[in-house]
Amino acid sequence: MVTRLIPHVVFLLGGQGSQYFGMARSLYEKDARFRALQEELDEIATLACGRSPLSYLHRSRIGGPCDDLELTSLGLFMVEYGLAVRLRDHGLEPDIIVGASLGEFISLAVSGMADPHMALGFIARFTRAIPSVLPAGGMTAVLGSLEAVTAAVKSDEVSLASVNSDQHVVLSGKSSALADVSRRLAISGAICCELPVRYPFHSSACDSLDALMRRLVDGYSLGFSAADRVSVTGPETWSSSIAGPRTSFSGTAAWEAIARPIRFSETIRALPKYESNLYVDLTPSGSLAAALKSMRVVRAVHSIVTPFGRDPEMLSDVLREAKELGVLRGGRAEFDEED
């Protein structure tokens, strides 16, 4: 029997701001099973919204930011859900799933709490409805001291969307107000990066989304009963909006996922034996892995999909370490091209 050397395997699922054109393309080209999953989900998404996320994300010549809310949200679901399936194919099962922002909706499908096709359809519905309710705005990632960021935010038009560490913060709000804050922070030496997001999620502006999300959840079946879990031994699903586990989903939970501040670092610290777990970030760009590393409290952190195009190699690295740690549950520990 292989000795398990860590307490838990944790999958991290994130959302808007981590997408980019060509994300997961190298894995799509080299992994036949992943490619088939992407094409299957793309058909469902295209039926739901009338446009193809794959065609949008994999175009060879792109001008402008990757910020189409509906298509990028569907694309994020497709990539993250597809990665979870492939990791499980190789025997890496999560004990815990942590969702942040849109990742909370993706976690419903990855955990088995919702049918993946129904979850994809729901994402299409609510992202299509948001522009009619939420004012335009944006989000900005900041590498700089929390003290300096707090001092620079002098307007109620800007909110702290996420505090990942005392040196890694995300702001959300009106675009002009974010630009003013970024200019003040640049003077203090902070690095500000505008994210490809057109709306001020996780800010006070999202109060207007409460009724919308309640109505959409009440009027749409996600393919599960709120009282049901697929298995009592299935993975725990944790929400970064409440920094705790979720066992059901409601309109209030849907609103909290996109409106409340992202309490990612607090959620991680609340996990059992959090310092010793194996964390695998399924988010494109490895944004949650970067946030986790900035906390300087965990040792085993992996991302898979990054702009460097080494997705197959990074998948192999994850599986290799998982095998060494004794957490593979069958399947193969190596990635084969055209597998």
TrEMBL record:
Pfam families assigned: Acyl_transf_1
SMART domains found in the cross-reference section: PKS_AT
Residue ranges occupied by any Malonyl-CoA:ACP transacylase (MAT) domain in the UniProt entry: 12-308
Keyword Transferase in annotation: yes
InterPro entries found in the cross-reference section: Ac_transferase_dom_sf (IPR001227), Acyl_transferase_dom (IPR014043), Acyl_Trfase/lysoPLipase (IPR016035), Malonyl_transacylase_ACP-bd (IPR016036), Polyketide_Synthase (IPR050444)
SUPFAM superfamilies tied to this protein: FabD/lysophospholipase-like, Probable ACP-binding domain of malonyl-CoA ACP transacylase
Listed GO MF terms: acyltransferase activity
Signal peptide region: none
Protein name: Acyltransferase domain-containing protein
Organism taxonomic ancestry: Bacteria, Bacillati, Actinomycetota, Actinomycetes, Propionibacteriales
